[in-house]
Amino acid sequence: RIPAFVPKDFILAPAKTVSVTCKISAGSCDASTGTALGSVSLERTFVYDRTSVAAEIISMKLPTPKGSLIVTGIALEYKLDKNGYPQANTNKNFMPANIVHAVYK
Question: Under a CB-based contact definition with an 8 Å cutoff, are residues 47 and 19 in contact?
């Protein structure tokens, strides 16, 4: 679930940011063997301004039989205005990523 938000009020970004891409990935594996069962990824890009972004419920279909481990991670990628052209941020202080959900089923 992504709540409604205003990017400039909610996301700390480097100077000259023009957009933020939220990358979400989830994967499942058999916890006893470590065998991968499936994975899915998606991206949402937001203009970095004061325009409100609508709430969204994201559904990610994965095989999750009994005994599986499910892990979800999120990373943000910033695009900066460099002489009128959007370029990916290379400042390691602004490359946030984290595991946001893990569950054993």
Answer: yes
Q: Are the C-beta atoms of 37 and 63 separated by less than 8 Å?
A: yes
At 93 the three-state DSSP class reads helix
Look at residues 35, 40, 37 and name the one whose alpha carbon lies nearest to residue 64. 37
pLDDT in tens, 19-52: 999 999 999 999 999 999 999 999 999 999 999 9
Give exposure, 4-33, as e/b (b: 16+ Cβ within 10 Å).
eeebbeebebeeebbbbebebbbbbbeeee
Cβ contact 58:2 at 8 Å: yes
Tell me 31's DSSP state: T
What pTM does this model have? 0.89
